[in-house]
Specification:
Low-confidence stretches: 1-15
Structural class: mainly beta
Radius of gyration: 21 Å
Helix content: under 10%
Mean pLDDT: 92
Strand content: 35-45%
Largest sheet: 7 strands, mixed
Distance between the termini: 9 Å
Number of domains: 2
Amino acid sequence: MRLPFIKMILCASTAALTPAAQVRADNQTLDLSPIVIGAPQAFTTQILPSLAFPSATVPTLHSFARANYTPPAAANSQWLMIGGMTNGLHDLGNDGFDPAKHNKNIYVVDPVTQQVWSRPMTDPTSGLTTAQIESLATTNAQYSQKGSKLYITGGYGPTSATGKYHTFSELTSVDIPGLMNWVKTGTGSAVANLRQISDPIFKVTGGEMATSANGKTHLVFGQDYPDNYESRQDGEYTKQVRSFTIVDNAGGLSISGAVSHPQQDDFRRRDLNMVPTIKKVNGNLVENLQALSGVFTPSFGAWTAPVNIDQDGIATQPDPLAPGTFKQGMNGYRCGTVGLYSASQEKMHTLLFGGISFQFYNPATGQIADDGNLPFINDITDIITDAQGNMIQHLLPASFPSIIAPGTGTALLLGAEAEFFLKDGIATFGNVVIDL
């Protein structure tokens, strides 16, 4: 089986178990689950050279909304990218976000023909108002794709109405093929392929969003940051799952059945990975969601216990103090992810690519080390969940390659707020988990 940028190889492997770590009190738990150094028995991973685009410039973005769609008459799927930031790590001082670094272009990328199209939201043919452009050029918005529609909520960015940053409260419906066509040809307009409504329920940044098999969309965790960024200053965390059904038809865009589930202090999370899962229940494969780790605890540590979310948006967390509860130490910040499920083994694999982490692999010692500053890492791990719900994290032999930044001589650390695009032709379940 071959995936984009990943080569899955069936083989046996050896692994070493690191002892459970004793960690700082700022984290959710005082201990972490041991990490297995070495790939699981099912497969190993290999990072392949990135796609070369000799005649086009690939956008350098993070924290953006995206869709994967095959337009009419196209031979393969193409990628749509909206919003996000064009720089790397934002400044950690006050006013750390630069308005000039918000992405105000919409991109379409064809990974097979190696073509890239872009068109600025300010293009005279877009038909977009200043307010609409600002709501689309946000960072850390939540998004969910449903067929030919991409739905985007919230996000953080500047607004000309006040001259300051804030969290947006829009739900945007994007007609993917229509907007792709405008980007590639300039015919028609962008606004003709967008619908927007505003409601406080969508006023979230740094959360996650997904639509379950029953049609309910879930806006999970995140925060409302009301002003310009200040170092070590939190916004108002939602501490909850917000569930609703999106109604998008000839009558317009709306939501129905909105429910804001009860707040819980342990749901004070943002910039986390929320991943699709599959589990066999009474002989049937059931698709749900799982929120992993995230930041920050009230004392600026990392969350460690996972949160399971069912198709109705009901969220449950295993007892963080229980000895058998999985407590995540690596890849805790939002990064590129992919899920794989083996029906024969009844095991769910979740691969996490780089990002920001409390723990990291120290090649000098061959051991897992801790860093309370939550550094960036190039390490890749696999969280495995068995049929009984037991979880364990493997450090995979593959990692992002060492790339030296031009002019600085420092090694780049990759993966934070990145996106994983699945290659065409890979067998998946309905929630895009790969069928092993």
